[in-house]
Design a protein that fits this description.
The protein is mainly β. The chain has 3 helices and 16 strands. The protein has 2 domains: 72 residues, Alpha-Beta Plaits (2-Layer Sandwich), CATH 3.30.70.100; 143 residues, YVTN repeat-like/Quinoprotein amine dehydrogenase (Methylamine Dehydrogenase, Chain H, 7 Propeller), CATH 2.130.10. The strands form 4 sheets. A 4-stranded antiparallel sheet has the order 2-3-1-4.
Length: 223
């Protein structure tokens, strides 16, 4: 698998227009049979975004590209979720139960810092970064893995917290004090307090969202 990074610059008040344009023109701007999907990472205050697309074929990934902003993903990692740490390094979680980190250069190219650090968990999905830690939801294991800012496992077991069934989405409060995870297999949102040292303590659960039967709730945001 190959990952292509396109950098976008825009006026700070035009972020919504950029998001809508990218979403509405995704197929037209990512032509090729090997195109697998994309993520758009938006920095609203600074008017910047990264359009990250996934490809099976290098030639199609580089076609009609203005700069050399393509890098190979860690073998077998199945890139799924993207976050940035406080030093603007790109953090990539792989569904195979791994995480990698890359420095992002001005021309959009990436240099690997740590690659495919395993967590021993199953179906790693969404991630968030808070208090110097990367947190990854593991849908197949019903756990959350915490990585330190050097992308080392916070716990040797890879389990920072247990969750209800089917954790798929994560969100963090604006002050980095609370983490929320959506468990569609149980139809709940689990709430955690983030300790100064990065620990997660369960403090509550919101119920009644409905259990996922193929049409479950997805997506979560916090302020």
């Amino acid at each position: 698998m190959w990952v292509r990074i396109d950098e976008i610059s825009f006026a700070a008040d035009r972020a919504d227009d950029v998001i809508a344009h990218t979403r509405n023109n995704a197929v037209a701007t990512h032509q090729g049979e090997s195109f697998l999907g994309f993520r758009l990472l938006v920095d609203r205050p600074h008017g910047r975004a990264l359009n990250v697309s996934y490809w099976d074929d290098l030639d199609e990934a580089t076609r009609n590209k203005s700069g050399p902003v393509v890098t190979a993903a860690a073998p077998g990692s199945v890139p799924f979720a993207l976050s940035f740490d406080r030093d603007a390094n790109l953090l990539v979680a792989g569904a195979a139960g791994v995480a990698s980190s890359y420095s992002v250069h001005r021309d959009g190219t990436l240099t690997a810092i740590s690659t495919a650090v395993p967590n021993g968990q199953s179906a790693t999905c969404w991630t968030v970064f808070a208090r110097g830690h990367l947190y990854a939801a593991n849908a197949g294991s019903a756990t959350i893995t915490g990585y330190t800012d050097r992308l080392a496992l916070r716990e040797s077991t890879g389990v920072t917290a247990h969750t209800d069934t089917g954790p798929i989405d994560l969100a963090v409060s604006g002050d980095d004090r609370y983490l929320y995870q959506l468990a569609t297999g149980a139809g709940v949102i689990d709430e955690y307090r983030i300790g100064q040292e990065g620990s997660l303590s369960l403090i509550g659960t919101v119920t009644g969202l409905g259990i996922d039967n193929g049409h479950g709730t997805e997506g979560i945001a916090a302020s």
